[in-house]
Amino acid sequence: MALPAIVLASSEASAHVKWFCAFDVAGQPRGLEQVLCLDFEWLVGLSILCLMFGCLAEGTPLGTALLNALDRVTTRVRADTGLLVRATLGFFFVSLWTMGGIILTPELKTDAAWIPWFQLALATCLIWHRTLPLAGAGIVVLFGYATWCYGAFHLADYPVFLGVAAYLILTGLNRTLYGIRPLDVVRAAAAVTLMWASVEKWAYPEWTAPLLAAKPEMTFGASPELFMKAAGVVEFTLAFALIWTPLVRRTAAIILAAIFVSAVFEFGKVDAIGHSGIIVVLVAIAADDARIAVRRRDVALAPAYYTVALTGFLTLYYVGHAAMYGALFSAHVI
To answer: Which end of the chain is less congested by CB atoms within 10 angstroms, N or C?
Structure first.
């Protein structure tokens, strides 16, 4: 399967499966011995090569020209990033208020009558710069309430909301987080969110089975098993790229934003509303003109850092699931 085909097909796989298919967070995930197979290894190897190629290109005249071109194309977006984020989040919260019964994402249902009005209040707070910290704090409240209702493991899917909350609070206060820009905070949160989601594709490929059965053409002739492994690797690699060097992360942000936007045409307004927040974050990352000098060790260390991240997220997911749902401490009773 060609890598471009995998990326294109990932647009439909990137629709959040929990919003459209039945799922069981407490169910037993696919064993690591089934995930870490030969297909998975060559997909990871190919992804690392692509990542290293991007790093190598960044330090060349071509890479500089591409960055300059991106700077020119995204000038207006960069100048109005704050306004764009506020407008998109306002749309998000007004949409949730209109739909009702949703905390933050479509599968996080609630009967609490105060939630929609609280969301409308957050949308109102986004109008003025000085009330942005209140909007950020309100998102933390909603995230905490969702965690209380659905559990920490379920909400581990959505740390991007905490990143957005931090962005609003820091922006409203005109501060950084120990020297880290607000955009860099939410960029890291988006990367963590997507890397975690990619592990879920490997752990529970059966959740997406109804989508693949209804749309077999999206696999480009590959088996569902291979397709889900490939979609997860593509998503993980692009998410990891968000925390790497400027050209690599901006390119990854553009690809991810295109994937999410294309999924909207297939899955409709629920997907548009649910992913609007992360899409605007990706657009902001793509427009960010902050640069750092690219060193040779960035290329050399890319495989090592990628491997550490991959190992870390797999470990966190499986150990966290076992700890939360009892498998870590359960024993067979004879």
So the answer is: C
